[in-house]
Amino acid sequence: MKIEHLVAEIRKKKSFLCVGLDTDLEKIPEHLLKEEDPIFAFNKAIIDATHQYCVAYKPNIAFYEAYGLPGWKSLERTMEYLNADYPEIFTIADAKRGDIGNTSTRYAKAFFETMDFDSITITPYMGKDSVEPFLEFEDRHTILLALTSNEGAFDFQTKKLEGEELYKKVLKTSKTYKGSERLMYVVGATKATYLQEIREIIPESFLLVPGVGAQGGSLQDVCKYGMTKNVGLLVNSSRGILYASAGSDFAQIAAVKAEEIQKEMEHELERYFLS
Ligand SMILES: O=C(O)c1cc(=O)[nH]c(=O)n1[C@@H]1O[C@H](COP(=O)(O)O)[C@@H](O)[C@H]1O
């Protein structure tokens, strides 16, 4: 998907919500376990109920890999369903891949061609030759981990290397990669106060921002420091939407939660963007 299509969808829906499909058989309503493919049945119900409030879905690949071949089949069915019925929705493979060049090329093929995702999350640790194979794909986007939402982010990402924090090095160095116009970055909502400095390095790039809801990050702070003239934000919530109810009304309650976030986003858009 082209960025301008994503921006148009954000304007139309007045939302930059990404719903994370972290589908866990131990958390989904019990009655779905009788279905032939419980993971897909859950995802389909969530997508049908929430699509009008969000612009992206992010299946976290670990939740599918954990179930082996049936898990991959559920992921494949979810992607086929999204691409056929909701082609305007941006899809993110939260796979956190990255390896030597020829291996990265196979990962890119797996997620961009075989599974037809619009984007993938990538760890930058192995550097240029591990990232550039993903950037060769037209209209596909590579989302580099910059400053993550978890506590462990302080182990390496904020440590100084040659006088500069490692996450800033990641941002600056990645801008020199071939195809860097197709880069986006992960910045955790719990790290919103860093966004001002991040925006000095990457003023326009889209950010995937997880960590609101269950992890406690603030949407208002993220918008205050991170919003660009093209919005430039995709804010993810997974558990806060998916598991708001464990009863037969799970999809309906997920829609209520998604709409609540969309309304907050609309308010923020009016404040910074539409006014
Ligand atoms: O790349 C990610 O999506 C990601 C990066 C990060 O820094 N923190 C983070 O929580 N995530 C993912 O975002 C989702 C957050 O889920 P909730 O905390 O349930 O909303 C999970 O799928 C995480 O793997």
UniProtKB/TrEMBL annotation:
Pathway, per record: Pyrimidine metabolism; UMP biosynthesis via de novo pathway; UMP from orotate: step 2/2
Classification via Gene3D superfamilies: Aldolase class I
Please list the reactions this protein catalyses: orotidine 5'-phosphate + H(+) = UMP + CO2
| InterPro entries associated with the record | Aldolase_TIM, OMPdecase_type-2, OMPdeCOase_dom, RibuloseP-bd_barrel
Q: What SMART domains has UniProt attached to this entry? A: OMPdecase
The name of this protein is: Orotidine 5'-phosphate decarboxylase
Annotated active site: K96 (proton donor)
Provide the E.C. number(s) assigned to this enzyme: 4.1.1.23
Into which family does the record put it? Answer: Belongs to the OMP decarboxylase family. Type 2 subfamily.
Q: Can you cite a GO biological process for this protein?
A: 'de novo' pyrimidine nucleobase biosynthetic process
Q: Name one GO molecular function term.
A: orotidine-5'-phosphate decarboxylase activity
Q: Which PANTHER family match?
A: OROTIDINE 5'-PHOSPHATE DECARBOXYLASE
